[in-house]
Amino acid sequence: MKKVLLWILISAFIFSAGFSKTAKEVLDEMEENSQGFDSAKQVYEMELIDSTGKVENTKEMEVYILVLDEGKGTDSYTMMRIIKPKNLDGTTVMTLEEDEQYIYMPSYRKVKKITGSTKNDNFLDTDLKYSELSLVSGDVEQDNETQMIEETDVHYVIRIDIEDDDVEYDYMIMTVDRTSMNMERVEFYNADDKMLKTMTASDYDEIDGYTVFGRLEVTDVEAAHTTRMNLVEAEFDIPITTKFFSTLNMTSRVLRYR
Asked: Which of 201, 166, 204 is nearest to 183 (CA)?
């Protein structure tokens, strides 16, 4: 029995030592690559696509990102605002910490904190849940357990456990391009190892010296429904501070930062 246990431990050591990098090292490099800027404003066209491939409707969204200094508990603050269509104009979601997220809907004229199982709800009628919005800015929660599960000549594959009882996912599998260190694909699984959702980033481009994806596709596997985000424009190192990210600013008709 002792020999069997010793062999298992030796095998596990050899397996883990066979990777050139740890999962955390890869995620750190990926985040540095996607958040090398200090701040950004990005505009996306969002297409909602049904199971037949037909575009049901479109939206336009502004995303404001502030990358924080190390040691502040999170990597970035984000503010996402719908600017089209007109009936949704001003709808805003702000993420400060993993468990501090707010939504403002002009029709209710009230800021509401997103808590508990609400994090599992979809953002409007898109395929993005509130708990997933931080991935749009390239922010990956690394306090959870991570594990390198595959390394090839072209990519790394990492498992990231999701330790949040309010979220329906148990873990996600992320594929990162080995050369560019860009995120390629994320698969979300429940505790029964059933894949519930996929997220694929592509058409990466360099703007003002920074790398940004040109397209992000999020697919609800069971519903066979997709939300496609196409980058329209991007500005980097804009003059915003933490004061911009306030519940009061969320209610402003125009988000000013200059």
From this structure: 201
